Amino acid sequence: MSVDILITGTGMFAGRMALDLAATAKAPVRVMVAGRNRERLDWLRTACNARAAMFGSPCKVVTHQIDLMDEDASERILDIAKPRIVVQAASIQTSSVIAQKGSKWTELVSRGGLSATAVFQAIISSRMAKAISSSCPDAYYINCSFPDVVNGMITEMGHDVLCGTGNVSILSNVFDGADNRPDKGGQLRVLAHFQNLAPWRLASEQRAGAPAPRVFVGGQEIEDVFETFRDVQLTREPAIEISGASGVTLMLALASGKAWRGHAPGPHGRPGGYPVKYENGVFALDLPEGVDEPEAVAWNDGYERRNGMTVGDGRAHFHGTLRERFLEEKFEHADGFALADLEEVHHDFARLRDTLSSKPAT
Question: Is the whole model's pTM more than 0.85, yes or no?
Fold first, then answer.
């Protein structure tokens, strides 16, 4: 079998992508969804092909049951699917942790940031990257599991990753669709780190002083982003309706070879999110005039350096409140770890998560 797009994972994020691919494809495309949950796979196959028929879309969705945590799962599914595009959306830490409360673990994630979960997000994604490198290096790899940070881990480990989905493209699309968007004809470009999402989950009057994304329309930077887009409102939970859908147009462009412009997190392993473009088989940054790559990367990287996780010299490094919280828990990896040890280290993180999840928040 050979498919155009392989989606690994059966959660809400993966489901949204598959369902929207089925409804919006204009050219023939074959999609495989792979994961452990047989009942969920059967439903996604049924629903996707029903949507394709409903909307007259030339998309065909098939499924394959596999436990993606099995030692050789990535290699086996690549051999079965022989995909042109791999979209990795499986994780051993759900993104819904951002909306959960009550335990010391959710408290640590809330105060220390989502990078507390980066190791969990990286396990399946790094295994898939390694498998792609060895068996189908020409395939485009889109990692959906915390790409702002995990994509940097993947490239630091010596593997290629095209980009991720969600995060910056949540904000770029809600700004683009906002009623009060300035200069309706001008191209909108956004620089945004995932940490910029949190203020938009709050009521507009609570956003003052929060970290804002950089937004450019028609070449001009908007000075007060929160005031300009005061009517934009995200859910407190992961914005799956937008984030899961945000990579669909890129996937279809890659499958058809057509040019595309948009936004993506973690392009080629860079931290945070950027405007990007795909032309003549090349995927590259599409920065606003007056902003060069070093400036854009440094702006995004600054968020994790103030509070989060960065990578360099083969290691992961923790910063700010996140590092302080790990130190408070006397966690052995508070000062970071070698990325080559990721497989072993994730067991230590799992023990910490289990311990803190059993304790009430302070």
Answer: yes
